[in-house]
Amino acid sequence: MYKSFLRPLLFKFDPENVHHFTFKTLRFLFKIPGIPAILKTSFQISDPRLERVVFGIKFKNPVGLAAGFDKNAQLYEELDALGFGFIEIGTVTPKPQAGNEKKRLFRLKEDKAIINRMGFNNEGVLAAVKRLRKNKNVLIGGNIGKNKITPNENAVDDYLICFNALFDYVDYFVINVSSPNTPNLRELQDKEPLTKLLTTLQKQNDTKEKQKPILLKIAPDLTDSQLLEIIDIVIDTKIAGVIATNTTISREGLISSNKEEMGGMSGHPLKDRSTEVIRFLSEKSNKAFPVIGVGGIHSPEDAIEKLKAGASLVQLYTGFIYEGPGLIKAINKKILEQNL
């Protein structure tokens, strides 16, 4: 029903407007008695064989929602009901910001891809905290970043603000220094500033009664030598793991007419590169830390490929938009079939 009816209808309209419409519709549906139970029955699989313990956290299944979809923690309960094993909110910044000028979100239908240049549009970390206080049992990751107006030399302060504000309300943290849509942000992936940032956050983590896992989200555009540096930094700073990968600035192989729009590209064309990065990190580090695989997962087979390449968990974003919520259940069924 989704791919044959709903998707063609929704794809006739502006993607950002559709995103907001979808949020409103899901919130409305979940207020109707019986609808949440029907959706849970339709989309969820509960099986102990799907459970995973990764960086000390027990996940009910290994298929999560990547950051960027529920930026402001508005819909995590409804999305959890669709079968996700965990929901990553954000990217949130200390202060609210509008993001880049519209239009800033583009479908590349022929490529099964999306280009976005959103620019960390969000309501600020305190708005997310207010909503997450109501969370009962949804496993939440907190993806944090810096405000656009904050210079890189002061970026650590922004990440610390978000880290401390969210600490009691998320299960793990993701440090986003790899979005191409905030000017100069990716410079924080360089060895010196990245080591300083992660060391500072880990020191702050050490002051807490119970530490939370800190993960680093990296770009797919890093070279092998840069990836080797990432491995060293992750091990040296003792953070919990890596999310591979964020969106790409590459446009190689795209055929859609709007392929040259500025921004980060996600979706099916990213699949192979994301898997290459996962495999590289896993092999070159001798599996020294967990990797969450994200990028181009549009089928159960795509997810299995990432798990076999070394990912402990996977996340969806563009594939969820193109393939619909049935993809989550299909992936979990395939994992059970293959005893992964």
UniProtKB/TrEMBL annotation:
The active site is at 179 (nucleophile). It catalyses: (S)-dihydroorotate + a quinone = orotate + a quinol. Keywords: Cell membrane, Flavoprotein, FMN, Membrane, Oxidoreductase, Pyrimidine biosynthesis. CDD domains: DHOD_2_like. GO terms for cellular component: cytoplasm; plasma membrane. InterPro entries: Aldolase_TIM, DHO_dehydrogenase, Dihydroorotate_DH_1_2, Dihydroorotate_DH_2, Dihydroorotate_DH_cat, Dihydroorotate_DH_CS. One of its GO terms (biological process) is 'de novo' pyrimidine nucleobase biosynthetic process. Pfam families: DHO_dh (PF01180). Pathway: Pyrimidine metabolism; UMP biosynthesis via de novo pathway; orotate from (S)-dihydroorotate (quinone route): step 1/1. Its EC number is 1.3.5.2. HAMAP family: DHO_dh_type2. Monomer. Belongs to the dihydroorotate dehydrogenase family. Type 2 subfamily. This is Dihydroorotate dehydrogenase (quinone). The gene is pyrD.
